[in-house]
């Protein structure tokens, strides 16, 4: 049995949920508010980051990249054509580069700031960092998003899927992050039609359904969030 | 033939050099000053980060984690007892967690700041971010280092090597970062004797020698930096 400590506004958590969905694996989802620094959670992961996965009460598997590799080694390897990492080392390197790009770089320049300022600060107590949103941080994140969206558009235009000819971790990582930004109405899709087409293709996969029906309390998504044709 | 774009003060670059050294691989080293944003380098890696490895004029392999996985798939797998990632997925997950801890978390909280403020700013032009060191950033990084050193000491006390019973990527990642901090005289080794013992064991490996003889122009290391018994 798999348990996944996650948060609906964590792109890294959404990435793992998509991978599990693609491989037909069920997991018990445990929502974690990392800013509360629960001692039981810190004992699982002293870095206090998400996601953390546990299989059969074993030791914690910490972080999206680490969980991704674990799932490739324990599930992906048996998936043949549906495996989300290619076979060749040099092709795997490109998938991993882009997965890191969307889960680390995009997160650190865009997603994390918009989520923090627009969502989490409303839920946090003042001593946890709560309060009114920082308009300068939001502006900076939005400016960065334009560059990232242009790169995404370029990838989507020049390849079938982001890392090559097949759906891979790179697509799920990018779509995990974009789905959060889209929930918040932050994505200027019309600027990058190829990125929009690619996102519609990923979004229509059955693995995406649970994410599209999820709601943050007090913050409904933009109207097209759950629509498969927008 | 392997080419490695690196910088002597980049922990992620040092990590890859140590892995190559352990596996007896030679690489042509190309020093990159990422802050200059050379167009030829940005074409290899638009994220402008180090390291970037190239094998036989193939596509770039970007980032320490991605290079580490590539080297495991193309070299480690043939190394038997000297392989730097264990065989079992759950043990690999622990090695990967710690590798990320030292190359990402420690880097983002300590190493990157001290290197930037104490070394790179002296080399950078004003328009590249050069100038006098920021004393507040240095103080914050030093405070963070104490926590990291305590965690390292705890790992070194409770296990033979940082991730278990064998030398692994986790040890090389930690030692890569610590060697830079040690060069700068930033490590209060006497606070954590178990961490010091562990570092002496890693430091005495032949793969470490090239790092210990390297010098940053105008900034000699602390006197014990190259000594194997300090």
Automatic annotation (TrEMBL), chains A, B:
Domain GST N-terminal: start-end pairs: 1-79
Xref: InterPro entries: Glutathione-S-Trfase_C-like (IPR010987), Glutathione-S-Trfase_C_sf (IPR036282), Glutathione_S-Trfase (IPR040079), Glutathione_S-Trfase_N (IPR004045), GST_C (IPR004046), Thioredoxin-like_sf (IPR036249)
The record's Gene3D superfamilies line, in alphabetical order, gives: 1.20.1050.10, Glutaredoxin (3.40.30.10)
What GO molecular-function term can you cite, just one?
glutathione transferase activity
- Give the matching Pfam families: GST_C, GST_N_2
Matching SUPFAM superfamilies: GST C-terminal domain-like (SSF47616), Thioredoxin-like (SSF52833)
Write down the superkingdom of origin: Bacteria
Q: Where is the GST C-terminal domain?
A: 88-222
Q: Which biological process annotations from GO are given for this protein?
A: glutathione metabolic process
Q: Which PANTHER family match?
A: GLUTATHIONE S TRANSFERASE D10, ISOFORM A-RELATED
Subunit notes for this chain? Homodimer.
Name it: Glutathione S-transferase family protein
């Amino acid at each position: 049995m798999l348990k996944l400590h996650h948060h609906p506004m964590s792109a890294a958590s959404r990435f793992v949920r998509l991978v599990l969905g693609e491989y037909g694996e069920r997991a018990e989802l445990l929502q974690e508010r990392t800013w509360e620094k629960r001692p039981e959670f810190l004992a699982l992961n002293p870095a206090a980051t998400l996601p953390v996965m546990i299989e059969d009460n074993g030791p914690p598997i910490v972080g999206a990249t680490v969980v991704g590799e674990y799932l490739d080694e324990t599930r992906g390897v048996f998936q043949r054509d549906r495996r989300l990492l290619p076979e060749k080392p040099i092709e795997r390197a490109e998938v991993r580069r882009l997965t890191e790009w969307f889960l680390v770089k995009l997160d650190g320049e865009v997603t994390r700031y918009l989520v923090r300022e627009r969502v989490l600060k409303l839920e946090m107590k003042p001593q946890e960092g709560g309060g009114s949103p920082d308009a300068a941080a939001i502006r900076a994140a939005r400016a960065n998003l334009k560059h990232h969206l242009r790169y995404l558009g370029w990838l989507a235009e020049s390849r079938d899927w982001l890392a090559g000819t097949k759906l891979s971790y790179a697509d799920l990582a990018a779509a995990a992050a974009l789905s959060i930004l889209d929930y918040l109405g932050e994505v200027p899709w019309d600027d990058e039609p190829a990125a929009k087409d690619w996102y519609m293709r990923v979004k229509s996969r059955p693995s995406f359904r649970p994410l599209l029906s999820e709601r943050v309390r007090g913050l409904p998504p933009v109207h097209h969030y759950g629509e498969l044709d927008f």
